[in-house]
Write a structure and sequence with these properties.
It contains five helices and five strands; from the N terminus they run ββαβαααβαβ. It is an alpha+beta fold. The protein is globular and about 40 Å long.
Length: about 100
């Protein structure tokens, strides 16, 4: 199980995600094999995930998908520290290591 947080130290009972796991998830997002994740690749991956949870989207109202898309776009822009509209591996790794922990 995953736990999300804004910290670098995992809470008790959780561990940080390992580099090989981070690289695997990064390469899954990199759909065109350029070793960079474009904003389009980022958005498409998460929109697909949203589509798998239509019940939650419907519960949140008729404009919920647009709100989520805006949030995803803003999130990408925050993580894209050099502003080139691509996430390199180090930018992506910072996202994961500061926000996601795995239950031990």
């Amino acid at each position: 199980m995953f736990k999300f947080g804004e910290q670098n130290n995992p809470p008790e009972g959780y561990r940080t995600i390992k580099d090989e796991q981070i690289m695997k998830s990064y390469l899954k997002l990199d759909m065109d094999g350029t070793f960079e994740v474009s904003k389009n690749e980022w958005m498409l991956a998460f929109i697909k995930l949203l589509g798998n949870d239509m019940a939650a989207l419907e519960k949140d109202g008729p404009d919920s998908i647009m709100k989520k898309i805006k949030e995803l776009s803003d999130e990408f822009d925050r993580y894209d520290t050099d502003g080139n509209k691509y996430l390199d591996y180090e930018e992506y790794k910072r996202i994961i290591t500061s926000n996601i922990f795995i239950e031990e």
